[in-house]
Amino acid sequence: xxxxxxxxxxxxxxxxxxxxxxxxxxxxxxxxxxxxxxxxxxxxxxxxxxxxxxxxxxxxxxxxxxxxxxxxxxxxxxxxxxxxxxxxxxxxxxxxxxxxxxxxxxxxxxxxxxxxxxxxxxxxxxxxxxxxxxxxxxxxxxxxxxxxxxxxxxxxxxxxxxxxxxxxxxxxxxxxxxxxxxxxxxxxxxxxxxxxxxxxxxxxxxxxxxxxxxxxxxxxxxxxxxxxxxxxxxxxxxxxxxxxxxxxxxxxxxxxxxxxxxxxxxxxxxxxxxxxxxxxxxxxxxxxxxxxxxxxxxxxxxxxxx
Length: 306
Known about the structure:
Elements: H1 6-23, H2 29-37, H3 41-58, H4 60-63, H5 95-131, H6 133-147, H7 151-162, H8 166-192, H9 196-203, H10 208-244, H11 256-263, H12 272-299, H13 301-304
Helix pairs in contact: 2-12, 3-5, 3-12, 5-6, 5-8, 5-10, 6-8, 7-8, 8-10, 9-10, 10-11, 10-12, 11-12
């Protein structure tokens, strides 16, 4: 992503300045960004759905009608009813309660791997793109080796080596996410390093570290944010896949992926056991992708200045 050209940027600033003089106060940057982000109905809908998921996860201990772990064999595989709005699973646990607590796993599945990928991948990409030469060659060949394997196969392999647990599964997802983010950051850095403002900074005697932190990184942040936001859905799906295979969170703790795995044996007699968590995964991932699309449009400098 290239930074906005100076003429276009100046026109945009002049337009905002004239609007500020006419109205008497300048709109806050965040307010302008929110207006662009929620200008269309789909990002608004996606944001509302994600807020419901987050609230449900945070308030799960208080709003869950039943204990999500304690079995009730007398209520096994009950269809949705007034007592159990989403039915019960194979050993009588309330599915609604397990969905609410499982949302916590999905949120954690998004945060920990993203933190690993961002704090390792972005600096590697910046250094590789700015320093070039042999450091770039060494880092890129290592990343190429990681990218040579199918993503889900590599995640399963690393998770299997680390051992079956939620933390190990999320660490495996984060490690695999380093390579594509580092490659993206490197490409953006190489593009930005050819811009006039970087040339001017070098002419003024700025060091590589200052150029990287003060000039290049702020101009590529928007592209990184959009890419990361669109990766969240894939991370949730990867965690669900590992839990489905028994490499993620371990029973009896609830996870949407493990719930789908349990219900897989009862698709003909009690399909709600799998359909409910599967629908939760689908709706959450779709909402994240829709919000990521809206975020991309809101941060696009050319669309923003139209």
